[in-house]
Amino acid sequence: MSIATSSEITADHLAVIPKSVETQPPAPAPIMAVRNVSKGYGSGATRVGVLNGINLNLREGEFLAVVGFSGSGKTTLAQLLAGLVKPDSGEITMDGEPVTGPGPERGLVFQNYSLLPWLTVRGNIALSVDRVFQSWSKTQRREHVDRFVELVGLTHAIHRRPHELSGGMRQRVSLARTLAMKPKVLLLDEPLSALDALTRSVMQDEILKIWQEEKQTCLMITNDVDEAILVADRIVPLNPGPDAGLGPAFTVGLERPRDKTELNHNERFKHLRNAVTNYLVAVRQRARSRETQKGGAVEIQRPDIQPVDLTLPRKAILNSPI
Ligand SMILES: Nc1ncnc2c1ncn2[C@@H]1O[C@H](COP(=O)(O)OP(=O)(O)OP(=O)(O)O)[C@@H](O)[C@H]1O
Question: What GO cellular-component annotations does this UniProt entry give (predicted)?
Answer without folding.
Answer: plasma membrane
